[in-house]
Write a structure and sequence with these properties.
The complex is a heterodimer of chains A (about 475) and B (about 600). Chain A has about 475 residues and is of the alpha+beta class. Among the domains of chain A are: about 155-210, no CATH class; about 290-325 and about 370-470, Cytochrome c-like domain (Cytochrome Bc1 Complex, Chain D, domain 2, Orthogonal Bundle). Chain A has helices at about 10-20, 45-60, 105, 155-180, 235-245, 250-255, 255-260, 275-285, 300-315, 430-435, 445-450, 455-465, and strands at about 45, 125, 145, 185-190, 195-200, 205-210, 325, 330-335, 350-355, 370-375, 380-385, 405-410. By secondary structure, chain B is mostly beta strands. Chain B contains 5 helices and 39 strands. Classes of the chains: A alpha+beta (about 475), B mainly beta (about 600). The interface of A and B includes residues 130, 165, 252, 258 and 337 of A. Strand 6 (about 205-210) of chain A pairs antiparallel with strand 39 (about 590-595) of chain B.
Chain lengths: ~475, ~600
Amino acid sequence: MNSMYTNIPVAGAALLVSFNLMASEPWSEQAITQHIDQADYAGELNQSRLSSLIDAGNALFDARFTRIDGVGRPMATQAIVPTKRKRLPRTDFSRTAGLDANACSSCHHVPVIGGAGDFSANVFVSEGFQHTDFDTTDPQFSNERNTNHLFGAGLLELLAREMTGDLQAQRNTALQRARAGDAQVRQPLHSKGVSFGAVIAYPDGRLDTAMIEGVDHDLVIRPFSHKGVMTSIRQFTINALNHHHGMQATERFGPRWTGHDDFDEDGKRAEITAGDVTALVAWQATLPPPLQQSPDTTQWVRAAAAGEKHFDTLGCAECHKPYLTLDSLVFDDPGPLDVAGTLRTGEAVDTRYDLAMLDWAASLEKDEQGRFKVPLFGDLKRHVIADQQVAALGNELLSQRFVERNVFMTSELWGVASTAPYGHRGDMTTLAEVINAHGGAARSSRDAWKALHDSQQGELIAWLKTLLIVP
Amino acid sequence: MRCKHDITMAHHAVNAMTLATCLWVLVLTSMGVAQAQVQTQADNHVQTSALATEFTADVPQLIEQAELAGIHHRYGGAWEYFVGGGLSSFDCNQDRLPDLYIAGGEYPAQLFINRSAPGGVLKFDKLDDAELPPNQSLALTQVLGSYPIDIDNDGYQDLVVLRAGENTVFKGAANCRFKRANTLWRFAGGNAWTTAFSATFEAGKRYPTLALGNYVDRSAPGSPWGTCHDNELHRADDTADTPIYTHLQPLAPGYCALSLLFTDWNRSGTDALRVTNDRHYYRGGQEQLWRLDSGAYPRLYSAAEGWEPLVIWGMGIAQADLDADGYPEYALTSMGDTKLQVLDIEQAIDENRPTYEDMAWTRGATAHRPYTGEDLKPSTGWHAQFEDINNDAQLDLFITKGNVENMNDFARFDPDNLLLGTYNNTFSEQGLAAGVALDTRGRGASVVDLNADGLLDIVVVNRGDNVSVFRHTGMQIANSQTRSDPAQSNPVQADQTRPGGNWLKIQLQQAGDNRHAIGARVSIKTGNLVQSRRLTIGGGHASGAAGFIHVGLGVAERATIRVQWPDGQWSAAYKVFANHHVMLERDKHTVTQWFPANPTQPQ
């Protein structure tokens, strides 16, 4: 066996001891010198405590984890549900099944840390748990995905929570009406101006979900990943730490759910504490939202203004909605929608902070009802994005977490000017290419775009280029 | 491969201390050896217990709330009611919450209607049917147990009521209305002491085949010793629009059955009938497996065919496919150690031989003496049921325990077992920590979600005591080692819980006959893990259940389900999200969700 893990249980333990002794030394190779204690951040955080938590999260996000920290999962797969490997991997790092990164910031760094990644930072998402050692980029084994940026992630999660609350409340109301009236009730589902189809409730409590559109049948808006299949920053963080680094969070891979305190058998226990995850969540959730920037030339200003009108006229804004309104900026971690395997409200120590404390919050516009306008240019809804003639974005072979291969969540366009390349595979180098690739539900808008004069297309690009991530 | 006789035989020696004190002389001669064997195993078990204290998964918090729930009911009576004491959990008023029909022995059986708020406190109303004509009243005496089953395929659960005397079948209708149907269905209730029941839909048959297990033939010369009654197989005439049970076939010899279960032991698609028998009364008997080829006269599997003789005080059968290989494992309760039988698959596949190995000791499931208190005498096990009570995607085993009556050689304080499945395929006793270790004499039981919150509650019928209703209020936060002795009181507080693993509840439906898809297999896949459930009627101890199948999912937030319908056809994959009730209808490819009334909490 060539794997470097072969002797870890004996020799590794001794090494870890010696490294731990050196952790405080300036030349220590340990990236996590002190784990975050969740209890230190219990309750509602003031600005000072939040800043401290954000700083800790920043350090973790940028940390180049090492073997001493717990990098590696020799006997665990990248799967979201803790899954044992059947045998040691041939190599511990691999660009396909992982480990495939040293730090979160290894991929999330365009244009700055927390940003997106270029094609070289693509990851391979596998739904095929049985192919845990896939070592090919053949799309029959995995889906290749480009790295998304994380700016405004906290606002996205808050929007998703509120929308989920709306949809589930409508469902519950329909069920109650059906019972009370002893007749079936067809209930349209909508939130923040976005329609999600309908449900039919029956008097005996049954619910027909066949007409639900663009969201899972549990009516939970999952705002993260290209597919829109991850519920929270917390859930995604735990997934990614395991997949990309083999750093396993106790709240999912610990003894409670696996019976092991070193599930991946790399000789390191408690690699990521609940507090560590909380810090990472705080850092990501408080990243400022990308806001439209004013160009520095008159020509660009004029072109962008025209382009913004084209964007609306072409119907782009039907899905890439310029903003969704948000009632509250109070962020609870854990959130209300996660399920077992990701820390849940009331399960341990809860943390709460108000994003309004952050400087960038003041720049969010409000509507006439005092609600925050979150300028995401998205709708947090999934759509079919490929068709028979325009199929470039339907290039995956595997569905993911019940979402069909040609269905993706509307990409939020905020920050799009700073996050080339484009498309969920990151294989489109220009905005024009990715617009041309819109099929399916976006086909009519794409066709209308294609019909524009070159100069008009340029104006639309000019406007999109104002949607910047400003460090 | 052969059974591990070392443990089994040791306990046979221990269990020479029998159900009746009249065997004391015989017992005393074997006591020396027996106690030594017990001590050795007890020492070993200390090690197991030490591991148990390191149990890392969730321990459920189960709080006894029968009085609060409005259930006042006692099972009791003379010798005939030393055994029995079962209940049915099923929905009789079409609200999809389980109602409870509980045997009373010499007292009237009672039906309790479930009025629990979803996720809230448990609440039941006793059905007062005093005004009804006698043939519509369920308040029978001499009832030992019952099983719900839709016999006439009208969509309503009927009831088979087991009695010391004439057995009674009740035809169910809407809103918990029942009508005696012995005459309508020409069901011969007999006059035996009936203690066990199972049913199956044989291939191509419209109506279920019923098996009834009988205990001692009290009228036979020399009773009670060696006078076990034959068991019975009732097959229906399929030509009529109403089930007509004119084909009564004796299953002889009978060895004083205390539990029956139709089971597809060899994945053939044809059920065989497992019978667990009480060695206390039979002579020359053993455990039995009847082969029922379609329409043919049943015959017993023999030793030559691989069925190895096993002599125990069989009280209850539970089955589960613990490793999801399609071949079920069986828990058999007895006096002393519980058996956990695992099929020798090679022999089964190559030669169709039903040969089993007892893995109870290896897996920590013997539950052979009380796990708490000072009483070191052997336990007396009754009802057994596999379920995932802590929603960690590992099946657990609940066993009711209780001294027969005044059996000095067996534990008097004999708490029910809650053996929680661990991640290394063993079981860990957590009854004490969970709160079920009461000083009662358990008999029949049902592990069932009473308030539609995805958490399995437990109902236990106790001999000579009120029924125990354990409400599952969540997973405990406090370390189990800090629990005080529950023999004093239930120390658990309601606010010491946290949410547990994810779950699913699944109900199957198909059109026409066998509407509830009895005999179907359900395969639930989450990541690499596959769990398997099969819908059966029978087993346990005089206790049946009908309703949602419960599955714990651990940390999986979604699952893919495939159903093998009773005729063997597989469904396409159903995609479902955790923490929901789902209804899977044959030939419908989408999932219908179900929500209890007033679903105020997001699911």
